[in-house]
Amino acid sequence: MADSSSTPFLPISQSADQLEPPKHLPVPSLDDNFERYIGDFGWAQFLQAFLVSFAWVFDAQQTFISVFTDAEPSWHCSTAYQPPAAADDLCASASDVCRLPKGSWSWDRPADISIISEWNLACAGSIIKSLPASSFFMGCMIGGIVLATFADSSLGRKNMLLVSCLLMSAVGSLTIFSPNVWIYSGLRFLCGFGRATIGTCALVLSAELVGKRWRCQVGVIGFFLFTLGFLSLPVIAYLNRDSSWRYLYLWTSVPGLLYCFLVRFLVRESPRWLMVKGRKEEAVATLKSIGTVNNSSFTLSFSGLLVFEEAETTTDLHLYSVIGILMEKRWALRRLSAIMSVGFGVGMVYYGMPLALGNLPFNLYWNVTLNALSEVPASLIAFFCMERLDRKSCVLGFTVTSGVCSIMCVVVGEEWESVKIWLELISFFCTCTAFEILLIYTIELFPTTVRNSAMAMVRQALVFGGVFCPVIVAMGRGNGYLSYGIFGAVIISCAMFVGCLPETRGERLCDTMEEEENKQMRVTDSGSSLTLGLGHP
What we know:
Layout: E1 10-11, H1 16-19, H2 30-38, H3 43-53, H4 55-64, H5 66-69, E2 75-77, H6 84-93, E3 105-107, H7 115-118, H8 126-147, H9 156-174, H10 181-195, H11 198-207, H12 215-239, H13 246-266, H14 271-276, H15 280-290, E4 305-306, H16 321-328, H17 330-356, H18 364-373, H19 375-388, H20 391-411, H21 417-445, H22 448-475, H23 482-495, H24 513-535
Antiparallel strand pairs: 1-4, 2-3
């Protein structure tokens, strides 16, 4: 750690010569100084990280709510228009209501429990049935593109999180009044548009509030809360199983609106982002409020501090200029392309498997509950792996395992139905673990000035995979496991791009593109020196 002569926080009363950082010593990064002044982790940081990460609860609910609201309800043959014997013959000869005469069948429960039964979509094409869910993921994509760089440029992490949660929850509340599938799909698009940056902002903001030793642990808090949101859905749906699907949106959207007030008044902005944007007094005030170290330098007047940071040269970045920077740097473009390719495969399986649960011959509530519960050990395993194993090995191992199990769901015969559900659970568990490690991996691959934008683009790759899921699931309703074969082939193919990425385990976070390049040069020089040393004993 740098000594007092090289610390970046100095009183303004010193002379100009004293303000110059020593030439022979490197200027400490933000990571080094945060470690020094706020410590690794404290209760103030924990509460901030928990409150920020709680947005994942509402994110999960809106992401998977269509599993219940858009499900095709069970039906039975009706004897109102024909003798019982004829009804029995029809039930035996047809498993699809579209093959039965009108009036010869009816839904087991009230028609308004699902959009399929309320709006008579049972015999509609797969495109119409999957339109609401596909619209949601398409909204996530468009929202991610439009909103991607606001958190890095003008709004910041906190305000972007607030705007996203507010838009998602408000549109979710309006969805209650949908009169038809077209309006419903449009509102789902807007909901996805607002939801697009919630996970990105929550993960990046919580990670930037703590030291690097606790970065992975804080990320896991968000994943646990996402699991909690996912797990709450089958509970809410079961309690409202004979009520309108509109109540699901009511019980999941109104709490989200209340949460927005907590974010507005209790959450602090990222001190790293404030420092990079030149808002030094606000950054130091935030550091003082969440710091755990009783450092004497904290007794200084925070309004009279100067900061020597290479990041100052990037404070005037315009909207989308960060994307241009990522594209201009060859190493950044290679990393971004590879991680987005992996994200596409992970996203297709992660979002597709829960949607496909309605196609399986099992109880939907139990299926969703088991899949949601599988995210709990996935978070624990992800925590363990990120602490002790390389990022590349973990992502590759879990994605390939997920793909193999998904394909096995198709290969195993019909007489092994119980085995298939376990294969599906293992596949989804591995995908969840890879999903969580992938997001932490992305944070470590890119510097502060472009981190939120890079994370947003990776999440767009994840939801881009989700765009195709509803169509694949709708096409597989005749053969419930057919879609799992497609999921497995895609995720294995995309996993191969992990080999194009560097390892980041144990590395400190960089703040600027130049700092990241210098770090890579040092790694390359060290590798070259080691090779020369081995070659010339």
